[in-house]
Queue: 4 jobs
Job 1
Amino acid sequence: MATRRTVRIALNGVTGRMGYRQHLVRSILALREQGGVDLGDGTVIWPEPVLVGRREHVLRDLAARHGLGDDAVATDLDAVLADDSIDIYFDAQITLAREEAIAKAIAAGKHIYTEKPTATGLDGALRLARLARDAGVKNGVVQDKLFLPGLLKLKRLVDGGFFGRILSVRGEFGYWVFEGDWQPAQRPSWNYRAQDGGGIVVDMFPHWEYVLHELFGRVETVQAVTRTHIPQRWDERGKPYEATADDAAYGIFELAGGIVAQINSSWSVRVNRDELVEFQVDGTEGSAVAGLRNCRVQHRSATPKPVWNPDLPATEEFRDQWAEVPDNGEFDNGFKAQWELFLRHVVADEPWSWDLLAGARGVQLAELGLASAAEGRRLPVSELSL
């Protein structure tokens, strides 16, 4: 009979879209539904969530909806952090509130798992990483895109040497976020106010940092152009407001080894691609296009020989010349997969590399991206250490 090891997790920010859907429902509750996390040695990790926030009635509704007890709701963060039965503090709040809360949790001796960006600036992000190191608490940052099926297939190709020498990476991310006047916006209004920590650079450049770093190499320079294409939006109450944050960013990143990456990020673009994010990787031996779930390849030996002729219609179906990479296995929800690894790290000290220092690299790239756009020049990205 397995021994159950209960791990109590304070989840702060589960009333938000990502905190509720991806972290509570599709991660923690999904792990409970599967019977916990089996360590393979007779021990099963059983995650026990405590929902933390300011709106008690909303938290109690969520707890009741998912069969959680009365002790699974808390509105006093200080009291939660003073509770010795709480093992992990997780933060999915708005960015402006995150740094102070994580610092308190570290001081209380809790292990830390958090959404990104970890702070509003690099100094704050490095401060948290140093506090966690000095306190000896385990810590992790959500880097969910590494666990998407499409990028897992892409990593398989990279690790297998499919590309030969990689030359370039081109990424397209985004979709049209409704302004909020005649259709409700799909994202919260604070995302479009710089004073509230909003902006697509702050939101997406941390993602691009870890994707590029993990798959292709460290980012060494950044050059970005940002725009606020939609200057007025309407908030959740239907009131117009000035959009002060960037809603589109066009970035060029030079990576270690000479690889050039270009990534466009926009909430003001209509989708004409197979998935909401796609990366094309070109190498001397082959190319691939990877999205959230799918990945297609074209090897050197199967590369066609198109000829430019603007006077004639295209005679080739270019998309048909690519082959689909098979799944070769089942892929779980990316957030859930990383949660499981972090729980294994906390309980069994299994290997883990996505820590607060990794999170600080994302904050650094966002900060430099905004500086590059403001100054109109390419900026070096220094290597971080504690």
Job 2
Amino acid sequence: MSATDVIGLPGREPTRPWFDREVQFDHYGAQRVPFGCTGADGIVQHFVEFTGDDAGRAFDVLDASGGYGSACLGAGSEVIATALSAAVRTAGYVTDEIASSERSLLLERLFGTGGLFADRFPAEHYRVSGRNSGSEGMELALRLALESRFDHRRLRAVPGAGQRDLVLGFEGAWHGWSGGLLPLINRRHYRIGLPAVAPEPFGFRTDHIPFGDLDAAREWFDRNGERVLAVVVEPVQGDAGILVPEHGYLRELAALAKRSGALLVADEVLTFAKTGRFFAMTDAAGPIPTDITVIGKSLGMGALSTSMVIARRELGVRPTGTVSTSDLRPLTCAVIRAGLDHIVAEQLVERSGRLGDQLGRLLRDRVVAEFPDLYREARGVGLLHGVELTEAAAARAGELRTCMIRNGVYVEFMSGAGRRSRGLRYVHTTMRVAPPLVATADDVETIAARLAAGSHALRKLAA
């Protein structure tokens, strides 16, 4: 089948259906967006219109989503292509039970003396595991927290640890779809009718409090004291609508966890390398200490799905209990190392901080201020921003996304935090604007202009 056969001709429906629409599982439960992608270059995606008078029209779209936040180098990176090609030919494929030169090179680059992450995670205090995805990484993080209570040989509680059965989560949080993570999500839509964690002595309970509310956190720790096993937090809440806490919140949360004897688990799957720093668990005083940190998405450079779980050395799991098919395979390590070296050499993380300031201003001035009927607020940090929809616009989010794509910009929509406790306002569906690290100042200007054009198009539909 040729590209012409698939794309069709202007003014006509495609001559053949796109076969993935016939057999791919629909995860979204709504009408699918009427576009196909025929390729990409940098942050430009090549799209084709499926329906209407313009069926068959080919057009370019700027990617303001970064492939669900994972394609930090965009498409067609020569650095990644070279690393993949060389690793396929020479690196091998041993699992983690056999030492690997590629794995050694990567981990020394990150955690050895002078390594990229060594100031935050020195090798004498931390060790690392690889997983296939961010969700798998968070599953392992939760397992490490749960098994910190147990004698791994006898599978019984360590004296004094048996009463730790509470995990603190946050309203609107998102840590992945998998069954073991469902207790960390407080949204009924995702939990009802699915497996629950077994009752004590081998289970746990999750309490959820509003993210960013220090008084709520202090009151919760005052009530629960030594029962707290772990705190699981995103330093910037993603699916909740790109909620950025006030300065000092994360450091005080870490202090509360430490004083209670609880483990602090940082979910940096989304935030890794996107906030102007490699790690969002950072403030003006420097790194905020964590017991377990999970990174992913950008770690795979848009070429692989992978994650890392970085945990204190004293934390472990029962033997063979968490063996993974892909625990930092040599090819994965080669891609990560090449990508991170490129990011460092080009200062892409530092540049994202400056570009993020520009992006934030543009979103506030040219999108939110110009379309108050559609948008309530813009917020974010680095190249991770969100534009919250009004209630009326949230009801038309599907139409809005289609308008954005037809006007040349690809964005995603996050669920929002919804209804929160303690009198905090409802957070509606939020448009995530998170272009790849390779975006330029001109790209950011164009993205904002096209978001405005797409917003105007939605208004015209309602006229």
Job 3
Amino acid sequence: MTRSASPGRTRLRAGRPVLALLLAFGTLTGAALVGAAPAAAARGAAEVAPGVTYDEFDVEAAKGTTHVHVLAVDLGEPRVRLGLLYPGTVAARATVSGLAGAQRAVGGVNGDFFHLTESSHPGVAATGASVGPAVAEGKALKAAVPKGQRFGPKLPSGTSTEDVFAVGTDRRARLDRLALDGSLSTPQGTVPLGGLNQYALPVGSVGAFTSVWGAAARKRATCGTDTDRAAPCSTETYEVTVRDGRVVSTSEAPGSGPIEPGTTVLVGREAGAERLRELATGQAVEVTHRLVASGSQDPLDFAVGGYPVLSGGSPLPGLDATTSAVRTAVGVADGGRRVLLLAVDGAAAYRSGLTIAEVAKTLSGLGASDGFNLDGGGSSTLVARNAGADQVTVRNHPSGGTERAVPNGIGVFSTA
């Protein structure tokens, strides 16, 4: 699943005229486009697949000219869909081009912020797992870590780690929020689940880990607190393995290694550990879990974490307007029928990037009513196929010089 396509980057074109994509979506409000041309002089965006186009252009931002790459996706085209790019397990990473190649996507961008480093807890390795919820092909992969355990820039007021960009079974894109609804039922009573395949569990809770988690150690889930990611690991832990509805083993400490299909490993910390200690080998246990959307009526086909920056055509209040950086974001237009995947170029000439406020204004200027910020910096990557090609190529220049391995992304798929 980590096979990489050839990078094949596109040459930057400073001062390039604004393309038909932008003319269709209107004039930018805030960050201004460089070299805007009248409609008669505009060149068309390149078609990647029916309903999917690729474009690149300059944006004049607060700290200078930057360069952005955009995939526009028409979900009204029945042969096109969006889905989650991921390596098959939650606690694993691969490059966007490798994920797109393995899943035969025609384009895509990187996704959620993730557990990239672990310097606060000696002997505990970073899991590579993402911060927020994730859904693939209608299946809940994981839930969100506590807000104080997240990685990434400060969240805007009123947002949370449960926020997602998603597409429902109605083929409409939207921003939503996914909360975990799960429980552990035993003869001693019912215990609510505090986590599902997460690198960090709430203090005092029990979390469930399934085969989707992967082989990474589960100890990190018991480190830090709900408000302090760097707090020491808990000394009160317990782990119970459940298979076919019965306890098959117990342990004082969280383990590691692949989890067999049909098996659930329960990890408890503090009060959660005490509840798990009540269970004995052979005892009947029922574990249930699902992700519940706060706004969607239709089931979600896919979802990825991040945080909102634009709602109803207006930037969220209090967005950072001073820190410029390489960014990745997604915009929702035309009532969810059209999606814009945007990545800022990380080449040295354009690395000043955009502020979060400028990201929101740029998406709005492209016609998006709602916007969602994804992981940026060295993670920012946009890939797309050239006409007639079998594999995607990296269209932007990753700021680290090469693609960074990431836990997930947004993939564009076509049956044409």
Job 4
Amino acid sequence: MRGPDVPAKALDARALAALAANPGCRRRAILDGAGVDKARLASALGTPSGFGQSQFALTRGNAFEAKVKADGGAELLRLAHARLDPGAVPPEGAAVPDLTAQGPEGRTARTALALREAVDAGGWTLLDHPMLALDVAGSLAFLEPDAVVVHPDGSWSVVEIKSFPVLDGSADPAKVGAAARQAAVYVLALEDVAARLTPAPRVHHRVLLVCPKDFSNLPAGRAVDVRKQRAVTARQLARLTRIEEIADSLPEGTCFAPDRPADELTAAVEAVPATYAPECLSTCELAFHCRERAQAVGAVTRLGRSLRSELGGLTTVEDVLSAARGESGDPDDPAVAALRRAAALRAEALREPGGRAPAPRTADGPPGPRAAAPADAARPEVSRCR
């Protein structure tokens, strides 16, 4: 589906978290499952996206991560001990196993072996960029967390390193929430590895978030509870339609290769239904394309998921306005009844003090002529105010 000689784009935890946040989008599910580079696809469709991190942010993040993991991860393990497991013995001389292997499958197997050996050995162990696998709607996704820490009691913790700062002890809540959703995907993948061991090690639901402190490059650690994000992500991933079912519903020969003609590529993308929401602008490379299509058909999804859920079977803005005017819709439908009540309240609120309704709009758009109000009525009573 992604085209001949087109390398697959691997799924990462950030993409999985975005996919779980919008499980009804079959378009993203099939494109991510097929390994399609959505950024190249968006450019080929004529709607390039500015989604993604800048090169400066990537460079700064890599430099900060290298500083945190210097000296065998001594500072990182110190933060893990202080924030996650202060009752354990201090991490002195922790093991840092080599996770090098051929291909993602080999690295996944090597990571599982290193985790098993760390549990048997006891003590602190730091796994730098391990490889985990997670089944997503019938497609295997390989995930690479920043680090995984094995505690002396054999339990496991996820470490997420971010370059956004912690200012006066607090960080941007939106960025912390995004990091928590990403870490929750790693927790799910770690739980799959732990389930294959006997006895199964405990996977902590409190992850270590490491960020620069204030405006310096010094690391600051914070324990983040991701139980809620883990439960939501697990439930949403389980609801995803399997990739095979979506592929079977597509026309024969559907291909998303970016070198295809624009009209053929557009037809291929439109063959898969999408569920656009404003949140997609910060999580999906195809958001601009889907927003244009949603605006063209007047879909209410572009107004937000909460509003879409309130409107029930009314899927377009024209349907909503028609129901509010009383021209269509079932009066017993709670959404239709609420719209008509809101329209009546609006008309009452806009009615002029003398009981007259607002002047109707003319064909050109502006309101028609209305009788001039008395001069005294339009002038404020300054003396009374004084």
